[in-house]
Amino acid sequence: MSSQPRSLVGQVVAITGGARGIGRATATTLVREGAKVAIGDLDHSAAEQTANEIGGGTIGLPLDVTDRASFEAFLDAVEAKLGPVDVLINNAGIMLLGDFFEEDPELARRQIEINLWGVWTGSHLAGKRFRRRGRGHLVNVASMAGKSGFPGSATYCATKHAVVGLSESIRGELKDSGVEISCVMPSIVNTELASGLGQARFVKNVDPQDVANEIISALKEPRFDVFVPRSNAALVRAMAVLPRGVQDATSKAFKADRVLVEVDDRARLAYQERATQRLTGSQKPTIGQGDES
Questions:
Q1: What residues pair up with 182 in beta bridges, in sequence order?
Q2: Annotated active-site positions, please?
Q3: For residue 287, what pLDDT is reported?
Q4: Structurally, how many domains does the chain consist of?
Q5: How far apart are CA 67 and CA 75, in angstroms?
């Protein structure tokens, strides 16, 4: 007999980049499941507003995932207000597109800091707490871009490959510890981050709620690989066994090689400006870290 899905009632869940997109949808769904939710975001006012709109005791806290002290303070605040964290969802991420050889090194660094270093830091801090307690669940949001390379997004793909590899390694180290880990790999998600992108043939975009539903499913019945949609798992397995030339031809036939190249720059303008705006007296862009794909 299969075991019953775990109840999320009373579980304390912390979500990075929770003010928008996937983070917001996941927080909303978790509250409906009876969880106690804290969302952290660089845009503290947006985090508080989202928390108020979700209700159910949700709290919004400031969080810069690139700053270890900020991340530790976030986890401490969650535990002080809601109790020991049972689940950390590393969701914060940005995507900046363009020719690799024309890319601004500072913006490339910022993608790496948020998309990889932020996940590393959250996994390191929360994972140590979980392992001491002998329970907990890490959820790292990667992307299908972590399973392949797409022209026009070299740095983004590099960060997502790294998140998949990091998660695979952590999985091995957490074996028999009582701590679970899941790696979430959505295709293009209909959030602000994905505005102006092209459309691959035969692979439809998904909504933030689709990703939220699969995260909740993985929390109830733990599994490592979380593809959204689930049919992408078969696609990844099939592509992995094909010769390189056939892979290239298939990517071209699906137009996957053009999705992040043939973009509508005007449609992406608002996101790009928000993602690259500089803080006064700082080299860091003011980025709401809540969108993911």
A1: 139
A2: 156
A3: 42
A4: 1
A5: 13
